[in-house]
Design goal:
With about 200 residues, the chain is mostly helical. Among the domains are: about 55 residues, no CATH class; about 60 residues. Helices cover about 65% and strands about 0% of the residues. It is built from 7 helices and no strands. It starts with a helix and ends in an 8-residue tail after the last helix.
């Protein structure tokens, strides 16, 4: 009975460890605390539960609408990037190789760019831009606006323009007078009637 009791207790502890591990691995605060703990001395310098409590306190402040800590974080990051920018510029005075100059120049310019973006984010957080919605209003009386539907007047204007262009082309077209003109036939019956009906008095 004692052996079975110990086996059941060990299984229960193992199950509880799996549950706790699952909760920790799926918690963003716990993951962040473990990452910070691992980066600083690989778990030998910091207390992970204390780090997690501090992260939870910061998250709760943001949830309550208190963004002071976020503003402080952005400002300190901007100042740190500003320090990196000036430190990289100072290094340029001690190097002579072109590749070294390029390396420190890239570090300085990247730090400057990231500092500018961080400050822009801070300014947007402090003074957010308001979205403006403009509604179109038609104040004309007895006027119908058909968006996306071509009106009959538009069709009439297009047809009139096409007709004017066609007339202009026909008017300006050269007349072909160089072709051969076919000879017309003479109406012999009309000529005979004209002779027969001639008046007898030839003195006229």
């Amino acid at each position: 009975m004692a052996i079975r009791s110990k086996s059941a207790d060990s299984q229960q502890k193992l199950k509880q460890q799996k549950i706790n591990s699952s909760i920790v691995q799926t918690s963003c605060l716990a993951s962040a605390a473990m990452a910070i703990d691992h980066l600083h001395g690989r778990g030998r310098l910091l207390d992970a539960p204390t780090v997690m409590d501090q992260l939870a306190t910061s998250a709760n402040k943001v949830n309550d609408g208190n963004l002071k800590e976020v503003e402080q974080m952005l400002m300190t990051q901007a100042k740190t990037l500003d320090y990196i920018f000036y430190d990289a510029l100072k290094q340029l005075a001690d190097v002579n190789m072109i590749n070294q100059i390029e390396v420190f120049s890239n570090i300085a310019f990247r730090a400057q760019s990231q500092c500018r973006k961080t400050l822009a984010t801070l300014a947007e957080l402090k003074h957010p831009r308001r979205a403006t919605f403009v509604k179109q209003q038609n104040n004309a009386i007895n006027q119908q606006v058909n968006n996306g539907i071509e009106s009959e007047s538009g069709n009439f204007k297009k047809n009139k323009k096409f007709a004017n262009e066609l007339i202009s082309e026909v008017t300006n077209e050269k007349v072909d007078i160089g072709g051969a003109i076919s000879a017309g036939t003479i109406d012999s019956s009309s000529e005979t009637v004209d002779v027969l009906n001639r008046p007898k008095d030839t003195r006229r």
